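Hi all, long-time lurker, first post. I run a small reading group and we've been trying to get comfortable going from sequence to structure in the token notation. Rather than ask abstract questions, I figured I'd post a concrete chain and ask someone more experienced to write out its structure so we can walk through it together at our next meeting. Sequence below, copied exactly:
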Amino acid sequence: KPPPGCRRLSALGAALGAFIALSFTLGLLGGPFRHRAPAAPRCRPRSHVVFLKTHKTGGSSVVNLLSRYGESRGLRFALPHRYQFGYPAPFRAERVRGFRPGGPRFDIICHHMRFQLSEVQRVMPNDSFYFSIVRDPGAVAESAFSYFRAAAPAFRNSPSLGAFLASPERFFRAGQRGNHYARNLQWFDFGLPEPAHPGQIPELLGGLER
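-- Answer (accepted) --
Happy to help. Here is the structure in token form:
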């Protein structure tokens, strides 16, 4: 027969074990001991969207999704009269089919363009959500060299990408039709001006981010 002290410890251990088991069960069932995180705000779909489709970054897949999304909700797309809103010239509102000053705005624009914010704002509502895709410039250059070889004389006249990178001035002629594909395509598509010196690049990128 155990001494009285041992009996008291056994009873205490049993009670403690029962309390832990009960607390664990209540926690699983969402009882009063469970900490409840505040409910996350519900997502609300956006119906005014500006997607700048940059070259060789996977933008066609996003355009496919946006097209399905907009069509299923009866949204109004800003479409070009002909091809890519006159690219490589900067975007102008007049290049949108159906645009008229003071007329109704569009819901989605998602084609290739050389971005120009002030002109896009003439076409799209003020609450539009703007986004794009950026990709490592080296990977873009490699993809562009292969894809635009026939369209860009600077690429076509170069025996290889390595030769072009080693001495681009040998092959690139500014203003020659198609040679915009041989520039930094993302910088060009975002409508950024040529930096006067390398130190100006962070300032220009900061403006774009804002």
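A couple of things your group might point at:
Residues 4-28 form the longest helix (25 residues).
The helical segments are 4-28, 59-72, 117-123, 137-147, 153-156, 161-166, 185-189, 201-209.
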